[in-house]
Amino acid sequence: MKWIFITLILLAPLLIYEKVVGKVSSEIQLLTSIPLLIISIGIVVYLMNKNGEIGWNKKVENEIKNGKAQILKIKTEKVIKRKQTYDLGSGFYIKISENETLYLQGQYFDELQYSRKFPNTDFEIVKTKLNFNELIDINYFGEYLKPKKKLKAFTKEQFEKNEVHYDGDLLNIPIEEIK
Predict the structure, then answer these.
(1) How far apart are alpha carbons 169 and 152 in whole angstroms?
(2) CB 101 within 8 A of CB 179
(3) What pLDDT was estimated at residue 88?
(4) Which of 10, 32, 52, 82 sits a CA distance of 20 to 30 A from 136?
(5) Rounded CA separation 38/139 (Å)
(6) What's the burial of 92, exposed, middle or buried (CB within 10 Å: 0-12/13-18/19+)?
(7) Is it the case that residue 131 has pLDDT exceeding 60?
């Protein structure tokens, strides 16, 4: 999309010239279009590199090598599912201990639950610490764990009152008290 947008911006003067002054020959169009396309590709590569979009995998690899990635190892025997809210993906309450429950939510869990890989009795989540806490990987060591119950999606009112949970929230309540 960036490339198309920049290309259109660079071609705009040529299109305006043709509209105002008159027809431009095919040869001139070809001779100006090719350099403009090359310039637009260069601009896109520069912008993506500046914003870290090109080197993202390298940054993530460096975080893992340097011990800056966050690895959450989880063993559980009880999971509760919360239906998808808006387009945030399904949510899962995972029993960590008698008084702690981890809430995980994201569209990536939707695909995994349909393949019966998640929720799981023994798994780990690898996230970046430095780059916007992005999910890197989910590794499974146990067996598929069917949720004990399914809760309704969060309502608009719950969002307005900030009575919702977000991906990665560690709740200091037993899983049995979640409603």
Answers:
(1) 18
(2) no
(3) 79
(4) 82
(5) 42
(6) buried
(7) no
| Nearby residues of 82 by Cβ (< 8 Å), 6 or more positions away | 90, 91, 92, 93, 105, 150, 151, 152, 153, 154, 165
Q: Which position has the token pair 């610490």?
A: 129
* Cβ atoms < 10 Å from Cβ of 137: 12
pLDDT of res. 94: 93
Would you state the pLDDT for residue 29? Answer: 83
* Strands annotated E in 14-173: 69-75, 79-82, 91-97, 100-105, 122-128, 135-140, 150-151, 169-171
- Beta partners for 151? 82
**What's the one-letter identity of residue 3?**
W
What's the mean per-residue pLDDT of the chain? Answer: 84
